[in-house]
Amino acid sequence: MTRVADLMSSPVVSCSAGATLGELAALLAERQIHGVVVLDESGAAAGVVADTDVLAGEWLATDAESLAAMRAMTAGELMTAPPVTIDADAPIEEAAARLGGARLGRLVAVRDGKPVGVIATSDLIRHLGRGHLGRGTVADVMTHGLVACREGTTVRQAARVMTERRVRALVVVGDGGTPLGVVTGSDLLPLVDGDAAGRPVAELMHPPISIAPDASLREAADLMLEAEIHRLVVVDPADPDAVPLGVVATTDIVAEMAEPGSVWR
Predict the structure, then answer these.
(1) Cα dihedral sign, 176-177-179-181
(2) Are 75 and 49 in contact (CB under 8 A)?
């Protein structure tokens, strides 16, 4: 049996409730992670701050007063509490069910009430990449709704959309809906404590990595792992410059794993 402890990231990347927004952004960017565990005075997990939580402050900085308020925000104010936890010795099938069922990005692994690691959807995808993904195509699990923006959208505007829609990435499209790139929360993090909120996302976006809807989940997982990304843009292979059909993310595959009767359960 493969346990959560076998796949989780450890030790825990953590901070205190008093950590500032800038300190959180620096920690997330430096470690190249999507969430930080906030510890209370006893060393127990009090909450989790995700990159999307950090971005919530960026678009508030429209003047000196709001910029000062943003810089004064702390992890304790931004965190999601209580954190969703799982026993470090639990089977990974339980982790997949909880992540997929609640559409979460990560769980805090605990032992004797103390956080010992974090298991994320990407950890499960990496594990699946070592074996056989079974049946299913991208079209079976993809998200058909597309959260997109134009290349002239500013960092502040992009951060606001990510916050309101609770997404970690936007597809940047050109005239006619042609996919030009993808901008993620991680791309915006280095700018949180600065004055670059007016920069266009075109300066930060990455080229889109696309996949056809009839591609297998095996192919999707391989592409994500190779490029070290969490999502692919789904396009019509007969017209790849048309408006994308949707997006497939690591969370979509894990949600499929969690379904009753799934080939993985």
Answers:
(1) positive
(2) yes
Alpha-carbon span 249 to 251, nearest angstrom: 5
Which of 3.40.1010.10, 3.10.580.10, 3.40.30.120, 3.30.230.10 is the CATH number of 138-258? 3.10.580.10
CATH topology classification for 4-128? CBS-domain (3.10.580)
Q: What is the largest CA-CA distance in the chain?
A: 58
What is the per-residue pLDDT across 87-132, written as a single tens digit (0 to 9) for each?
Answer: 999 998 899 888 877 777 889 999 988 999 999 888 887 776 555 4
At position 8, the amino acid (one-letter code) is M
Pairing mode of beta strands 148-150, 114-120:
unpaired
Task: State pTM to two decimals.
Answer: 0.62
